[in-house]
Write a structure and sequence with these properties.
The complex is a heterodimer of chains A (85) and B (593). By secondary structure, chain A is an alpha+beta fold. Helix content of chain A is 28%, strand content 28%. The chains are: A alpha+beta (85), B alpha+beta (593).
Chain lengths: 85, 593
């Protein structure tokens, strides 16, 4: 199963920092995540795609294409809109 | 003219006298205020023959036409001087309340010249300027001094130096409103060299606004825009700036152990999430700011503002330390002693690497949280090894034979972002006019957070155009002077409309970017006059030649040379990075070349 790491207010919405989810692509994993934790979906998804300023990385690399395949060894990280400096 | 007070306060500490005179309004039109106006004035006042710690250097405090109008974040102000750390032009800006109070006292600019024979402090109550003996205040720390001089946020505000500035540490800050800082580049040492301990202001005049009805509507619109943005209404208030820790670590761009690695195994323990859950007492804000990103944090030993992201990184990942209470306490200590937290943390990290490699005889070691507070104290008072650390990492590393271990550009220590994982940030550091800095246009927005749009962080070709735009916009915002976080909810062009409503001069977006470009080119001219050249537009060898061996930035070094060539062309400069006569004429700077 792909490891999904959540950050900032997504942790509160999901009630956890980390989950393991099975799915063939990033999009499939995200859909499963949202089914398990609907409040997370309201923050990260819009019209079937990622909302503006949501950052998703796969093993530390930025990902935009939700059709990208994932494996059991992968780590998917999801960040809500954040800023700082 | 509405917005500006049109008045300069010019103080000579040699004679403890002052004069006031009208602000050159043509200069104000071209450079607005803050950083831009300070740079233009410094050009005339401090030439290459002046030692930064001599009486001939000046401190130029500036606000802007929006300051104290009540526009959101219109609390900020600048100090401009020649940096004792880098030798470059320096401006540092700060929030809080002092800048608003200074504007209400009726001045756009305050120039401090000369040197008092005895310690002195200055009290300003509008047109009343008083010089007081500071002999009994000399040696006092910032928190106690601020209270003693009567800090009262909306009535009377204190700006001062701590022991670090008195002891001429080249990384000393000027502090205002207790825990806000004009931090980078050592302005506190310049103030200390003048025997000036504090400047206290009380003002009563709000600036005139040219079109009050239009301005009032813009206040309403801006409030709505900031409330609608998840960045300014949720992310910054809820988690503060430290929320960047985990994402920078995740992508392998979190400088670690003096930039020897790009990921820190203890990042989660020093993250914004951890700070919020375990140490946050409440939020706080600067004057007229609805964002409220300031953290009030508490440990068993201290309670106070911060720490910000860069501070948490500097004492944390950069020193290999995952002990958040120790970081919070080191931050509070720096504020009380008057030190720049980024440079302090990074200089300690440099000393740790020098020690571990046997180049420096000290017991400083990565990961030793117990060493932070003693090291900070030693730096402020120049005790033992602290005397070497007090002047920053480049002087330290050079003294012990390894200047390449200073993680700095032009002598100013970098913030948290390791540019091997962010090519644009590397170009930004190398070309920043005050040295390694993230406040001269930060590429974290487009390269990491997708603000306003995501671009490939490893892309080299074409990156310079983004850097140039960010640098110019940053210089424009610093000249208004507003907080850059406002720009996360309010677009650049809106600031031009606000400036027009306040001053009655019609500015459009192009005018604002042009102001920023003009300021950037003037700062470049200043540094060229000081003897800086193309060879200083560079980065430490580690970032150019040593690729991370693991993590998401594995295999990458900064591809500086091709980006720099493209950057100079994009700026309209020659191949040596010198602005061409054509460019200077276009920016109305031809008379300065």
């Amino acid at each position: 199963m792909t490891v999904v790491k959540l950050y900032a207010n997504l942790r509160k919405l999901a009630g956890t920092k980390e989950l393991s989810i099975t799915g063939p692509t990033i999009g499939a994993v995200l859909n499963q995540l949202v089914r398990q934790h609907p409040p997370v979906g309201e923050v990260i998804l819009e019209n079937g795609g990622l909302r503006q300023h949501i950052v998703v990385t796969l093993n530390g690399q930025h990902m935009i294409d939700l059709e990208t395949p994932v494996t059991e060894q992968d780590i998917l990280a999801i960040f809500p809109p954040i800023a700082g400096g | 003219m509405a917005g500006w007070s049109e008045k300069v306060l010019d103080i000579d500490l040699n004679t403890q006298s002052y004069k006031t005179y009208p602000l050159d309004m043509e200069m104000a039109r071209l450079f607005i205020g803050g950083r831009g106006l300070g740079a233009r004035l410094l050009w005339d006042l401090v030439g290459p023959e002046v030692d930064p710690l001599s009486a001939e250097n000046v401190l130029i405090f500036t606000n802007g036409p929006l300051t104290a109008t009540g526009y959101q974040t219109s609390n900020r102000f600048s100090v401009t001087t020649k940096s004792p750390l880098t030798g470059t032009i320096l401006d540092a800006n700060s929030g809080g309340f002092w800048g608003m109070q200074f504007k209400k006292a009726g001045y756009d600019v305050m120039i401090i010249r000369g040197r008092s024979e005895q310690p002195i402090w200055i009290e300003i109550k509008n047109s009343e300027i008083m010089f007081h003996d500071a002999s009994e205040l000399w040696g006092m720390r910032v928190f106690a001094l601020t209270e003693k001089l009567g800090q009262s946020n909306n009535k009377r505000n204190v700006l001062c130096i701590g022991p670090a500035g008195e002891n001429l540490s080249r990384i000393a800050a000027i502090m205002n409103d207790r825990e806000r800082a004009l931090a980078r580049g050592g302005p506190g040492a310049v103030m200390g060299s003048k025997n000036l301990k504090a400047i206290v202001v009380e003002g009563k005049d709000r600036p005139e606004i040219n079109d009050p009805e239009r301005f009032k509507f813009m206040l309403y619109e801006t409030r709505k825009l900031l409330a609608a943005s998840p960045l300014t209404s949720q992310a910054l208030p809820e988690f503060g700036t430290v929320v960047l820790m985990n994402i920078m670590n995740n992508i392998g761009a979190l400088a670690t152990r003096n930039h020897q690695q790009t990921q820190f195994e203890g990042a989660e323990a020093i993250s914004g999430e951890e700070l919020t859950e375990k140490y946050l007492v409440r939020n706080a804000s600067c004057w007229a700011c609805p964002i409220s990103c300031t953290r009030i944090s508490k440990t068993d030993k201290v309670e106070g503002e911060g720490p910000e992201f860069e501070t948490t990184w500097a004492f944390g990942a950069q020193c290999g330390i995952d002990n958040l209470p120790a970081i919070i306490e080191a931050n509070a200590l720096c504020n009380d002693l008057g030190l720049d937290t980024i440079s302090v943390g990074s200089t300690i990290a440099c000393a740790m690497e020098l020690s571990e490699k046997g180049y420096l005889d000290s017991d400083l070691r990565f990961g030793r949280a117990d060493q932070l507070a003693p090291a900070v104290e030693a730096m402020a008072y120049r005790r033992d090894i602290g005397s070497d650390l007090a002047d920053g990492s480049l002087r330290l590393a050079t003294k012990y034979g390894h200047p390449e271990l200073s993680m700095s550009a032009k002598g100013l220590e970098f913030p948290a972002y390791d540019p091997r994982g962010m090519q644009g940030q590397g170009l930004l550091y190398a070309t920043s006019n005050r040295g390694g800095c993230h406040m001269r246009g930060n590429m974290v927005g487009p390269e990491v957070l997708g603000l306003p749009k995501m671009i490939d962080r490893f892309q080299v070709q074409g990156k310079s155009s983004f850097v140039i735009l960010h640098q110019n916009v940053s210089a424009a915002i610093d000249s208004l002077v507003l907080c850059k976080f406002t720009n996360m909810g309010v677009a650049d062009e809106y600031f031009a409309r606000v400036l027009s409503a306040v001053t009655g001069i019609q500015y459009d977006t192009g005018d604002m970017v042009k102001v920023g470009e003009r300021v950037w080119n003037l700062e470049k001219l200043y540094n060229l006059r000081e003897g800086f050249s193309r060879k200083e537009d560079t980065l430490p060898s580690r970032l150019l030649n040593e690729a991370p061996t693991d993590g998401p930035s594995q295999g990458w070094v900064v591809q500086l040379e091709p980006m720099l060539k493209e950057y100079y062309r994009g700026r309209g400069w020659d191949e040596n990075g010198v602005p061409t006569p054509k460019k200077l004429a276009e920016l109305e700077l031809a008379n300065l070349s």
